[in-house]
Design a protein that fits this description.
By secondary structure, the protein is α+β, with helices and mostly antiparallel strands. The protein contains six helices and nine strands. Helix content is 35%, strand content 34%. β6 and β7 form a beta hairpin. The chain is globular.
Length: 206
């Protein structure tokens, strides 16, 4: 089980989306890092497309060692800056894994990723985590990854993968169904905000 996930979210400037995407995939391939690269399919009006690299680490120490070597390598930092020059912004996030993805069927090939981002009410983060774990264990099919960002005290993230857009649609319909209303209402009562960006997976390495 990975101990942490690192997300690097880049918002390309107009006309640079695929140049940024190809550069990010090239970097992932050159390092041979386990993870994925996604491109947002749904965005908030005016927010623009995001290219998100996700890297899995078996320990926080392993990530820190990679960081140390990255900062000491001028070629690596120059490539980072070159890609960043094609972006409006670059945001990084480190998340501790609470529950990893589970119950993945043999031969499953993910095509879409949904990041459910919850902002807990003040003082309710632990209760929200418990409610999300309870909801996860009660769900059928692939069980999503539950994570907490180490730099955002009130946030929790549940990431799910799907093999089709129809499966993405059906998952939201299941969440909103009368059968799940009690669990859904409990989660809503513990949160100030929930957003659900959908992305297309463009690179994947297990």
């Amino acid at each position: 089980m990975p101990a942490c996930i690192v997300n690097i979210a880049r918002k390309p400037i107009e006309g640079q989306s695929f140049n940024v995407l190809n550069a990010v995939i090239g970097t992932m391939e050159s390092h041979g890092l386990p993870g994925n690269v996604t491109m947002t399919l749904t965005t908030n009006l005016g927010s623009g497309i995001s290219i998100i690299a996700t890297i899995r680490w078996e320990s926080f120490d392993a990530f820190e060692e990679f960081q140390d070597s990255f900062f000491a390598n001028q070629s690596s930092t120059s490539r980072w800056d070159e890609t960043a020059s094609k972006c409006q912004s670059v945001d990084t996030n480190v998340l501790e894994v609470i529950k990893p993805v589970d119950n993945v069927p043999d031969g499953f090939i993910p095509k879409y990723m949904v990041r459910n981002i919850f902002t807990a009410k003040r003082g309710k983060r632990s209760e929200l985590i418990d409610a999300l774990i309870e909801n996860r264990e009660s769900s059928t099919g692939i069980k999503g990854t539950i994570m907490k960002p180490i730099g955002h005290y009130q946030n929790i993230r549940v990431t799910q993968v799907f093999d089709s857009l129809e499966a993405v649609r059906a998952s939201l319909a299941e969440i909103q169904s009368p059968e799940n209303r009690e669990r859904t209402d409990k989660i809503i009562q513990l949160t100030d905000q929930i957003i659900r960006p959908v992305s297309r997976i463009r690179y994947l390495k297990n």
